[in-house]
């Protein structure tokens, strides 16, 4: 008995030593408070500790704990922050400090540090992006619950300004009425259900349709949780909603379409006990009662309130999208991965149990079947649609080339990432390329309702400005090899420039001059959203072409022109209103993708021929295929994607309209500020390129043989002439800036690849060769900035590197623009 007190004392001493030694970490809420008080982003902490951002999110949400050396390092960080930023109760203050404490990074750089809110996603209410009265995307408030990181401040006083795009100079918009405490009726509430989790409800305005019908929602009519379950559920859901929900609804959120109050999509996940929940945009978690796949489709259409309002007046609402995680696939009897045979077919077999289940419930699948992007529907009844789209990441629905590692994200993070994309672009309809093409149609639907006839009835009619419902035959010169229009050509005939329209992006390079070899660096600049900028304002044909002999060229008439431009001499051209003398041997030709001067008549799109006239030369077309019915079909498409890109870049701390030095600083490491939003930026850019490429989609598999039609030809959006016009204009835009820069500075690019140009310079940055005067760029030349058409720094290598690479591969004209970003060259790239 005498040893028992000693054992008790030893146990207590061990416990105290553990606490004193710091093995017990602060509560999750305190971890969040300390990081936010210091102005540190999740990405910055993750980088310092050598982990991924989701790990930091899990530690701060209480879902996981660090181990080993990382636990000690994380504890050390939190202890250091706690000394610098004690809890408000420990340091009461009568008045708030004038400015928040400086972070260590402030002492290292005089550049303006991005505000912490740029790393926070602005959640979506009702499937539409929160916007202010002037159209800017609204920012979420700092937190939903908890105390302010600054002593003496209330949460409302520290609310984040509602504009996501900072004003010129890097300062966010000044706080105003939008920063005040939200109306309690518009804040997020929680409602328990029987599964032991809480459900975060959408903010609704008193008297709104959403509020009045909330009781009909299955997730909000579940019975009360069992005793003891509420506390555990609240702990998890409070962390989730605190992180992903906004403090106040954006202006006008109460007017959002109540049919889609829960956003455009949901990520469906199941736990080990088979409990299924849906993670929605904005932090909402819905209980999913469906026990089978047909029941899941029914629940989505009848109770989930998912979807997105139409983007154009005569258009259609977007169908709800369900993203199925691996556990959800197992819960509903679907394979986590496809077999090799299923992968090649792109779908499950017709006799699969899940497919038969849907058929018994009278649900149908589209022609592409049950694949990575499946559409499950019943025939429409009038204007009412019954369709749900499924996305299966583990079946490679989210291509890693465009979505990076999004497929492996936790459900909440994936819902956030896809929600940003859906809100700013549209609900994904497939790959980024498919979505880019679908966005064109969504903004310009092919039909609309007519005016009432004599009987008061409306009929479907062609929507002016759209491509219509029926495909049109292009001109023979516009189609790729193997098209049915070329069936009469000899089998191995190779078409000449006088037979085929070859409007493609640049792939040109030249040897360095002696003067350029004396410089130290090769600096690459990349045009932001180059093909989107090329689509802006371009006039394209809306109908079938008309063949014309000996036409008079009209720059406002879209089409394809057979004309000889071999006489164009770039040694003396018009650069704006002035004539300029240039070294034509150092310039690419604007008329060919290879940059070589044309040798005779060839087919060109209207923008290319118009540029020859702009340079000061006469043109005399031999024949043409022109389209009298035309318009600026892609303008709305460009505007939508431009706004998505600029808004997301602003969230990453790269604002528009800032001086070039500040822009370059903001771009440095911007992807690390929020890796998930960086993926959205990549997806937006892929949507542009993929959408343009889909306009001339080539046959893929399908047992196709040259001369036979392929599936894409049946679409009215199979328009190779529109693709040619956009690429032509993009290449001309590049050349126009090259000429302007050369005429003013005497500097010429050494390589051009698509939207990247490489120059030799004495310094390692773009400002070492771009002419700026008092912060103003050369009019009509290259301009640093985030907007489409402006440029950013692509990469820098040394001149010695460039010459060494070319010597290694015995290619004096190897295109260095292809490798300027990383400096890595492989034998695969060089064809060896």
Describe this structure as you would to a colleague.
The protein is α+β, with helices and mostly antiparallel strands and 832 residues long. Helix 14 packs across helix 22. Residues 17-21 and 90-255 have low confidence and may be disordered. It contains 25 helices and 26 strands. Among the domains are: 19-92, Orthogonal Bundle (434 Repressor (Amino-terminal Domain)); 187-430, no CATH class.
Percentage of residues in helical conformation: 25-40%
Poorly predicted residue ranges? 17-21, 90-255
Number of strands: 26
Average predicted confidence as pLDDT: 80
Sheet with the most strands: spatial strand order: 5-4-3-6-9-8-7
Total helical elements: 25
Q: Could you give the distance between the termini?
A: 83 Å
Coarse structural class: alpha+beta
